[in-house]
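Hi everyone, sorry if this is the wrong subforum. Our group has a chain we'd like a structural model of before ordering constructs, and none of us has done structure prediction before. Sequence below.
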Amino acid sequence: MSGPIRHIVMWRLRGETSEERSAARLKVKTLFEGLKGRIDGLTHIEVGLDVSDVDYACDVVLFSEFTNQAALAAYATHPEHLRVREALGDLRTGRFQVDYPIKETGA
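Answer:
Right subforum, don't worry. Here is the predicted structure as tokens:
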């Protein structure tokens, strides 16, 4: 794959109370949004917090795009990304990921 790739990650987070879960969600959002403009090849990053409040929903979704597969691979070991992962520690209880190529469309 040589074209752009989309990287989507969803997490379920720890928290005994709704306040703790809200704080955890905000922490994830703040840390990942702080990566904007800091990693070569990361062309888009968006973090959404679940508002459905259904028991099977994830708490947070990360929607990001990279110039290519190599940029996504470099992101996985980039010091800024590793700093975020370390700051989150064991906050997550579940993690789900999908990576797929983005079809380029003509104008």
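For your construct planning: The radius of gyration is 15 Å. The longest strand covers residues 92-101.
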